[in-house]
Amino acid sequence: VARVDEAMKPIPGTEQTVECDLLVLAVGLIPENELSRAAGIEIDPRTRGPVLDDAFMTSAPGVFACGNVAVVFDLVDYVSQSGEIAAQGAVDFLSGRLAQPAQYLPVAVRDNVSFVVPQRLRPECGKAAFFLRVKQPERAATLICAGADGELLQKRCRYIAPPEMLAFEVDKC
């Protein structure tokens, strides 16, 4: 770390090294993906954050993303929920319960959906939390989540709009 001048440039001689086991970055309203890009992690052009699986693991095994690193959330509740998902994913990865699948199931969006997170699913059964935004406002909308074996969720919404994130959980089996 270092002090910075008016132009946000580090001031020579003020540098300090802080040893740590974990670095958490809090950022503004665009996903902070500089570290993700530098690590070669796949970036979703729609969210401008890392491509995630349902454990919120990135394309780099053992690297997880959450909060506004993953996608711009509108509610702190969703930021917290994404942190819980990523933390549980990290625990499962470190304990050997979360292996890299040979193949992920892609998550596809249709019609009025701008993006969805996670963008891919592990094939094993379990619950998955999804976060999405729509392209256009719509009254009396129906959100349908379907898998290869049929409909997993149908949720009626009185009103949906691009600035408001929609969140839902489904049982993948």
List the helices and strands and how they pair.
Blueprint: H1 34-38, H2 67-70, H3 76-94, E1 105-106, E2 113-117, E3 120-121, E4 127-134, E5 138-147, E6 150-160, E7 166-171
Antiparallel strand pairs: 1-3, 2-4, 4-7, 5-6
Written account of the structure:
The chain is built from 3 helices and 7 strands. The protein has 173 residues and is an alpha+beta fold. It has a 3-stranded antiparallel sheet with strand order 2-4-7, with no helix packed on it. It has a two-stranded antiparallel ribbon with strand order 1-3. Strands 5-6 form a two-stranded antiparallel sheet. β5 (138-147) and β6 form a beta hairpin. The longest helix is centred in the middle third of the chain and has 19 residues, at 76-94. The N and C termini lie far apart (47 Å). 23% of the residues are buried.
Give unreliable regions as ranges.
none
Mean pLDDT: 89
The total of helices stands at: 3
Number of strands: 7
Which series of helices and strands comes N to C? HHHEEEEEEE
Structural class per helix/strand content?
A: alpha+beta
Question: How would you sum up the major sheet?
Answer: 3 strands, antiparallel
Helix fraction? Answer: 10-25%
Distance between the termini: 47 Å
Radius of gyration, taken over Cα atoms and rounded to an integer in Å: 18 Å
Strand order of the largest sheet: 2-4-7
Strand content: 25-35%
Give the CA-based shape: globular
